[in-house]
Amino acid sequence: MPTTLVTGGAGYIGCCLVEQLLxxxxxxxxxxxxxxxxxxxxxxxxxxxxxxxxxxVRDASVRARALDGVDEVVHLAAIxxxxxxxxxPEGSQALNVDAALALAREARDGGVRRFVFASxxxxxxxxxxxxxxxxxxxxxxxxxxxxxxxxxxxxxxLGGVVEGLPAxxxxxxxxxxxxxxxxxxxxxxxxxxxxxxxxxxxxxxxQFWRPYVHTRDxxxxxxxxxxxxxxxxxGEVYNVGRSGENYRKxxxxxxxxxxxxxxxxxxxxxxxxxRDYKVSFDKVRARLGFETESTVPEGIGELLEALDAGxxxxxxxxxxxxxx
Length: 324
Prior knowledge:
Blueprint: E1 3-7, H1 12-23, E2 27-32, H2 39-48, E3 51-54, H3 60-67, E4 72-75, H4 82-87, H5 89-109, E5 114-120, H6 145-158, E6 167-172, E7 174-176, H7 187-196, E8 200-204, E9 209-214, H8 215-227, H9 230-233, E10 236-240, E11 246-248, H10 249-257, E12 264-268, H11 282-288, H12 296-308
Parallel strand pairs: 1-2, 1-4, 2-3, 4-5, 5-6, 6-10, 7-9, 8-12
Antiparallel strand pairs: 9-11
Organism: Conexibacter arvalis
Protein name: Nucleoside-diphosphate-sugar epimerase
InterPro entries: Epimerase_deHydtase, Lipid_A_modif_metabolic_enz, NAD(P)-bd_dom_sf
């Protein structure tokens, strides 16, 4: 079995992915700076059999140690999301672009057989007609620093700047759901938490569209790419999600209210939203046979059950956000 390096392996998607890869019999090495205080998660991954390197992917010596002897690389490590990148533009450029490309070149030089890069459907930005699902061939129109950085790396990986690298770029829908490294700063999770807590939820631009994918399904998609033949994935871009899982914010609220009567919702009309898009996920289903297993309503039920059970004594704690 191959050995797989997962950067950001103690993160929201990363923990789910590492657990799934270990279950396949792979050797798994994690590189993570544990920015959000995930030492307990790192120890848990070690107990399951993963090797964990606590370090910064921007450090060349750390990258060299992490890449030594690995066959596959999944690059998840990043400053994730528009607010976090806007807070530190230089730092996000250094991590999200410079370190990603350095890692890619070094992985190529080390002879890795597969390099999976985590990108985002936010790359599509504001569509001329958001009611028509966009495919991987559609125009990229990033409107945030985060998406702009992801597009820059995608183009470098697939456009010959890192020539000879067996790369695949995965554009993830907005992620949601219960995970070992929990996040409540993501739309589905945040809306569910606030209504569960009987708070008032203020929703801006309820009519705008986004696609959504459960974190376990995001991890499954990566595993699917790692197991696929080269001809199906090398040099390819895949949207990751399900075509039926495009929702407006209004739809999300109604799905939560169908499962709890708590909370109050007010809507703030916005006539313009720079990110308004529906996404097609037909390619990943047709080419790789990948279909998501969870739906947003199911994920909402899972979140409500976890909150009821006291899994998160203080779901507003800074550890559950990318900006504490």
